[in-house]
Amino acid sequence: MFKSLANLSHIYFKKFEYCGYSPNVRSCKPNTDGISSFENLLANIILRVFVWVVAFVICFGNVFVICLRSCIASDSRHHTMSIKSLCCADCLMGVYLFFIGAFDIKYCGEYNRHAQMWMESLSCQLIGSLAMLSTEVSVMLLTYMTLEKYVCIVFPFHNYRAGRKQTLSTLTVIWALGFMIAVIPFWDKQTFGNYYGRNGVCFPLHSDLTEKPGARSYSTGIFLVFSYTSMFFSVRKTSAKTARHTVFDQEVTIAKRFFFIVFTDALCWMPIFLLKILSLLQVEITGTVILWVVIFILPINSALNPILYTMTTTSFRERLKLCLQMKWQQLGMKDTPHSISMIYTHNSAP
């Protein structure tokens, strides 16, 4: 409709998202929805820089932990497998942010010309599903690890311990379920519509009146029912572990650390739950708030998990210290024959 209006230079809409339907118009108002602007995919200059910083921190932290866990032997290899799997899931969030930053640079200065094409593109759908896969697998892994530790600590003399096959099977099921959650919106366009292309950052966190009922119900089930239930279950179990009196100091330490980890994750998820509830109640939410949640609050778990799960543990720090000491000793042994020869020559002199 707007392509035929060659002389149209200014246009005014009720919402910024409609500006994408008139890419040839020189001036469109409103020129931002808080997420994207007429010029850029990310409207906020601070977040345009911050997206790269957060992505780097997430990827570097998780890859670093994976490498350390691979090099340093652990008493619980099955637990280490779960930690590595969690790091892989969290690392996907960093990859998602890298893509958002890259496309922001690609469309810099002329985003509105490509806005509609971008939100309907396969690239937007794929990186949106990547973020969904990361968040849901991370939550499920956290719940599984919490349940596993709960059984070990509450029933310390029980013979049950997850073996290699059982751990691999559980991790495979978790990843398969996360993959299904992420790709289901691709199956039926009539029900879900453009599920991941509702905004410039390709993440279906916010509901609006134009969203299809099937998509609204699905996102509500994922972010409120599934994720909230998992986090509530984890917090409840870790609370029980911390409150339980036991004579084993190591178990108490593990219980307190797990409670702190799960409680931190729950705090990070709380704004997401509130934002989803408010959007379902049709409360007007500015795009700036959504952008801060997607770029900053949502990835916090991915950045903190490798630190909380690995670098805060006493046993891991001791193994790392021991490994570094052995490396230094091996380096020092290279000079030992020469030093002994010099001492022997000096002592044999008349």
From TrEMBL:
GO terms for molecular function: G protein-coupled peptide receptor activity. Keywords: Glycoprotein, Leucine-rich repeat, Membrane, Repeat, Transmembrane, Transmembrane helix. The chain crosses the membrane at residues 45-65, 86-105, 125-147, 168-187, 217-235, 258-283, 289-311. The lineage of its organism: Eukaryota, Metazoa, Chordata, Craniata, Vertebrata. InterPro entries: GPCR_Rhodpsn (IPR000276), GPCR_Rhodpsn_7TM (IPR017452), Relaxin_rcpt (IPR008112). GO terms for cellular component: plasma membrane. GO terms for biological process: adenylate cyclase-activating G protein-coupled receptor signaling pathway; hormone-mediated signaling pathway. It comes from the Eukaryota. This is G-protein coupled receptors family 1 profile domain-containing protein. It is found in: Membrane. It comes from Albula goreensis. Residues 61-309 form the G-protein coupled receptors family 1 profile domain.
